[in-house]
Design brief:
By secondary structure, the chain is mainly α. It contains 8 helices and 2 strands; from the N terminus they run αααααααββα. The chain is 62% helix and 3% strand. The longest helix is centred in the N-terminal third of the chain and has 30 residues.
């Protein structure tokens, strides 16, 4: 393999990762398109299935999961606090809330009066993630970054997990939108 071939392969990998993650953002944009804050904050079938979270929580959680996992990989503070998003959201939850463990009551506290606050956080997190992926040296993919698991987690495995989680939750947002009776 020549250096030029290796460079093209590395760029192709970075482009693929950015595209894979970006698809979840496109899905979230579609899920939030034309939705009021009231609709976004509502659990679509609260009495029947309170674990089907609101569009707001699903989009916020997707951004948080990306943010909290990419920030240490990129050697930076999470955008949630560094970018002032915590203050703009003003949630009655601590900044280190473990949103993947939220009860229905806790997830219902994730509300916004203005969807632009949510979109701004999504924009910032996806930009940081995209910048990280664009600068990624593929030689790092086998680097062990978390030994708390068996087997230990490599950077490549963590990136697959981040993309998979974002895909899952953005799909749930589309489903929640449909349960609200909205088209799309």
């Amino acid at each position: 393999m020549t250096a030029a071939t290796g460079d093209r392969d590395a760029q192709a990998l970075r482009t693929m990762l950015v595209d894979a993650l970006g698809r979840s953002r496109e899905r979230l944009d579609r899920a939030l398109d034309g939705v009021s804050a009231e609709q976004a904050n509502a659990r679509p079938v609260d009495g029947l299935a309170p674990r089907i979270d609101s569009l707001t929580w699903l989009a916020w959680h997707t951004a948080r999961a990306i943010d909290l996992q990419i920030a240490p990989l990129a050697g930076r503070e999470p955008e949630w606090t560094a970018g002032g998003h915590s203050a703009r959201f003003g949630l009655p939850l601590p900044d280190d809330t473990e949103d993947w463990r939220h009860t229905p009551e806790e997830s219902a506290q994730v509300r916004v009066d203005d969807l632009n606050i949510l979109r701004d956080y999504l924009d910032a997190v996806y930009a940081v993630a995209g910048d990280f992926l664009e600068s990624l040296d593929p030689a790092r993919l086998d680097e062990v970054i978390d030994e708390a698991w068996e087997p230990p987690v490599t950077l490549g495995v963590r990136l697959v997990s981040i993309i998979d989680d974002a895909s899952q939750h953005s799909g749930q947002a589309v489903y929640a939108r449909r349960l609200l009776g909205l088209p799309g």
